[in-house]
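Before relying on records like the one below, remember that each one covers exactly one chain. Contacts with other chains, cofactors or solvent are not represented anywhere in the record.
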Amino acid sequence: MRKKGFQQFLPLCILAVSCIFATGCLKSVGTNASLSATPDSLYLPASGSAMDTLLVLASASWTAQCNQPWVTMSSTSGNGNGFIVVSASSNIGSVSPRYASITVSSNGLSNQVSGVAQAAGVTVQAGNGSSGSGLAQLNSPMGISVDSNLYIFVADKNNNRVVVWVYTFPAGYLVAGNGTMGSALTELSGPNAEFVDASHNIYVCDAQNARITKWPPAATTGTVAAGSGVQGSGLDQLSDPSGVWVDANNNIFISDRGNNRVVEWASGASSGTVVAGNGVYGSALNQLASPGGIFMDASNNLYIADSANARIVKWPPGAAQGTVVAGPGTAGSGPDQLQSPSAVYVDKSGNIYVSDAGNNRVMKWGPGASSGTMVAGTGTAGSALNQLMNPSGVWVDIGGFIYVSDMGNNRVVRWAQ
């Protein structure tokens, strides 16, 4: 059964706070909510650091205070919903106790969050690792995105739906599709990516239906925003679309995998324009080969996971060809190589994060770098918390945490940098 829209199910009349320094868990949510970190968590080494994001949901102004001087908070007050990036000093040394608490107050309500300083780690943010169709489960999750409220949107491919998970909540909420494969406007068929705009409209890559559908907040039916619904190579058609981005002018950019191109559909248009690739499978700089996820930066440069070419290409607006910014174009497992990259994210500093699916890892490439650094996964497929299996999506939140759609393990995991 469809849950209420994600804006509606969060009661703004309460104050809820969640802070998990690495492995903590949510204890309760409600009026005067009480949350804490697991008391027997890992400790913070003298040379280490810990960071997490404290999410505050409030209907009025609030203040925050911590009882330990070695804890740093990015903000100590706010008005309405907000967040606090919490970190422990890297030179904490042998200070005792390592136990800290943060008290958030609003309108006479007082909530205390506690945690034990510890090494940064990995936590499961969505899915329980078991393939299934329950709202606590995922089945081959692919594209993900995380908004400023730490809502995690997941294209749950084999469940034919898009779900949103609130940071630390144990189950997701259905926001697009009804979980049944089909071509009706209430249905999706193999969705593999999504984009959420500033008005909370969700654009879904409805891959097997060869279309992009738009779902307003709390909608139970989508509308076709691009594609004819029939696989094809015409400018009014798509073939296995695998990535979507919407700019500030509501132009829709689509990674048209089966046609080896990226197309732009103006808002309300009945056909698109090719903006990257020439429609021919190839490795020249004006070509793409089975492109996957896409990302657009503040200058409207497109970053494309050129999957079969084992590279990330940057395509400026109006350019006739792209520039390789990650991967040499030869598949491999070296730090300068990629293998079937599936998704890309670029932060405000120009660092490029690549979901390196074939190597079961996420790589981070600095601006102008000739090789990357592994920031998630071990490079070996597995289900341990430090491993990934065919990662298919990547995002970095406002606190710098890396979220990975761990498709083969049916979960979304979050890695601290």
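The chain is about 0% helix and 40% strand.
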